[in-house]
Amino acid sequence: MPATEHINPSAAQVEHFIDAGFVKLEDAFSADLAQRCRDELWTDIGLSPDRPDDWTQPVIRVGFKTSSPFIEAANTPRLRGAYDGLVGPGRWQAPRGLGTFPIRFPSPAFPGDDGWHVDMSFGTENPDFMEWRANVKSSGRALLMLFLLSDVGPDDAPTRIRKGSHAAIARRLLSHGDAGLTLRELSADGFASTEGCEVVLATGRAGTVYLCHPFIVHAAQQHRGTQPRFIAQPPLLPTGEFDPRLPPSPVQLAIRKACRLRQ
User: Fold this and answer.
1) Which of 17, 82, 177, 218 has the smallest CB count inside 10 Å?
2) Taking a C-beta distance cutoff of 8 angstroms, is the pair 6, 84 a contact?
3) How far apart are CA 223 and CA 52, in angstroms?
4) Max Cα distance, the chain (Å)
5) How far apart are CA 145 and CA 98, in angstroms?
6) Model confidence over 194-206: pLDDT tens digits?
7) What is the rounded CA–CA span in Å between residue 173 and residue 147?
8) What pLDDT, in 10s, does the model give residues 127-166?
9) Which CATH fold would you assign to the domain 20-258?
10) Beta 143-148 vs 209-212: how paired, if at all?
11) Taking the model in full, what pTM does it have?
12) What is the CA radius of gyration of the chain?
């Protein structure tokens, strides 16, 4: 897609990303694309929006999807411009689809996967996900992304985001070098350093995308609404390690600011 079609984030959005750890992009992809994605996912899970009596589980997960609606949704001009603006031109891999999908249904049952956490970036070949790792350079991950494929209100199990929590995680990782920490090590204290952060709910219309710093602390929650919630939560993958010869991206600037390093 030609660079001239990219729509870059505003200076205020970039500043909010650095300080808060995320930016909300409304109308990042169309409602029609969101509907096409939902239609495929309904088929995948063997359920129907017209048969709520069959919605017996609080959450059903679907893996990565590479059909055309998912590729299109992940690569709109607005999103490609945002990837450039937050990660840097040429420093991210064009998404080849979307995934994974935690599809949450109205249910009185707790989902059992609603703990606070950070998505790890490398070492994912280990079958024990608690041994997956992250380091202060965020090797292997440029962004955490939340694609809203259905309308998500406050009662529809919106992802909870601890605003500004990425800064505390950056400081925690700073002294551990390239090896970083495992999820088990990073979560040993229950992310106590981020408990005072304001909690923001990832709500919005279908077509909204939250682009989050890789270190943001977030959590799922119980669905208390009436309609199933469809989101995708893919990473944006980098093309390589951060290159110190290039100007720092907002992802790097957020880390440097948190660690009081030279900007």
Assistant:
1) 177
2) yes
3) 14
4) 58
5) 10
6) 999 999 999 999 9
7) 27
8) 999 999 999 999 999 999 999 999 999 999 999 999 999 9
9) Jelly Rolls (2.60.120)
10) antiparallel
11) 0.95
12) 18
- The Cα 189–Cα 166 span in angstroms is 16
Residue for token pair 């290159």: 243
CB-count exposure of residue 35 (10 Å: 0-12, 13-18, 19+): middle
Please name the residue that has the structure tokens 């981020």: 194
| Contact criterion met (CB below 8 Å) for 91 and 238 | yes
Give the length of the chain: 263
Query: What residues have CB less than 8 Å from 199, skipping those under 6 apart?
Result: 160, 161, 162, 163
Check if the beta carbon of residue 147 is closer than 8 Å to that of residue 188: no
Amino acid at 248: P
What does the H/E/C string look like for the chain? CCHHHCCCCCHHHHHHHHHHCEEEECCCCCHHHHHHHHHHHHHHHCCCCCCHHHCCCCEEEECCECCHHHHHHHCCHHHHHHHHHHHCCCCECCCCCECCEEEECCCCCCCCCCCCECCCCECCCCCCHHHCEECCCCCCCCEEEEEECCCECCCCCCCEEECCHHHHHHHHHHHHCCCCEEHHHHCCCCCHHHCCCCEEECCECCCCEEEECCCCCEECCCCCCCCCECEECCEECECCCCCCCCCCCHHHHHHHHHCCCCC
